[in-house]
Amino acid sequence: MIPIWLSLSKWNRWQRCGLALGIATVVVFGILVEVRSAYLKRRMGDLGVFVRTAWAVRSGEDIYTVTDPNGFHYHYPPLFAIFLVPLAEPPPGVDSSWTIPYPITVAIWYVLNVLCLAISVHWLASALEESPGGRVSPWALRLLPVLACLPPIGHTLMRGQVSLLLLLLLSGMAVALLRGRRGRAGLWLAGAICLKVIPAFLLLDPLRRRDGRCLTGCALGLVLGLAAIPAAVFGPARTWAYFQEWTHVLLWPALGPGTDQSRAKELIDVTATDSQSFQAVLHNTIHSDPTTRPRQPSTAVRCAHWLVGGFLTLATLWIGRRQQDGPAVIIRFGALVVLMLLLSPVCHLHYFCLSLPLAMGALAAVWNGPPRFSGRVGMLIVLVLHGIAQVLPHLPRLQVLRDGGLATYATLLLWLSGMILLWKRGRCYPLALPREQPVISEAAA
Predict the structure, then answer these.
(1) Rounded to the nearest 5 degrees, what angle is found at the Cα of 406, between the Cα atoms of 405 and 407?
(2) Tell me, what's the pLDDT at 297?
(3) What are phi and psi of 168, to 5 degrees?
(4) What is the rounded distance in angstroms from the CA atom of residue 199 to the CA atom of residue 201?
(5) What is the DSSP string of 350-390?
(6) What is the rounded distance in angstroms from the CA atom of residue 294 to the CA atom of residue 272?
(7) Annotated domain spans of the chain
(8) Could you read off the pLDDT of 29-66 as tens digits, one per residue?
(9) What are the start-end ranges of the E strands in 246-307?
(10) Distance separating alpha carbons of residues 54 and 141, to the nearest angstrom
(11) How many CA atoms lie within 13 A of 132 on its CB side?
């Protein structure tokens, strides 16, 4: 299939104007990101943490104790910091003659993130168009889900975060699953886990399907990304020490049993961030006054967090247990991604850009449905509500909506829509494909 941007001669005037407007918006927003990140008295965003940690890799310092000019720490596995070494920024007073100036680094990172978004959308849309189910409007399939997730997309671009890179890795996994390349899907998942540990939650799906190739590919990727490459850079002993340190200062305190409070005010405390997890929303609802709100949730709230998340996860796996067609596979995958976010003890607002696969799969499902399986208008309403609910928590004087989890409830509405679509598609297409059979034929791919 020819990519949509290579058939400009077939575009009408409105489509070309839309493309020009989109490019202009990306450029103008990039200028705002550049000014906010590099030219204010105080740098804004998280890119400074990443490039300062990359310098620690380069200079041999401890990557989990070094901080950026705002005093923030690095919270990810070592692999990401290793890959960012070419963009490393030294601390003040250190020779920087062989480093890239920070404003140029901001521009490079912004362009890379925009490319990650564009490639992710095109991969998912192309795979859905190739799968059985009928015609899909290429413009609706690519544009509407992006608009529904535009607030968190803009948020992650403004903060210089890694969510769009994570979206690219997860999209690669979803497309590989559609095309029956299960070992490659496991490698994509391993890359996502090496970037940010929470995608390990998605192992539930290949475990349920007893997909040995996917699990083997993931295991090989994890050995490479979490052990082999860091050991080659730091040495085996220091790599092991880094994982022990990361577990002590971040993993156990985030899950509850840890006692280290060095990252509490920065990340782990419920009152420290704009977290939208089940745990944070329940805690904020019980303690509605932010001035008297405890910094840590109670044991009952933690238990409720895992019970709610566990129930919704089981419901997703059961309703989506059959692999019917492309939209069904993407909906099931996207629904698990959404639950992965909400089950993470810390779920920032910009994480919800990862709702895009679910939105795209749901839109493709209603577009492809048989005559008795309609619902385009209803799906469009859900996408509009999702977009509005992602905007409102960012507005001044609407902190109550952020603390109350408006973005969480809107994302759950999108999840519920996906589950309803899966249930109906299971009744319309009762025969499941064999586990070994790809959804998209090799000829179509």
Answers:
(1) 90
(2) 85
(3) -60, -45
(4) 5
(5) GGGGGGHHHHHHHHHHHHH--TTS--HHHHHHHHHHHHHHH
(6) 11
(7) 18-91+95-253+263-428
(8) 999 999 998 888 888 888 989 999 999 999 888 888 88
(9) none
(10) 37
(11) 11
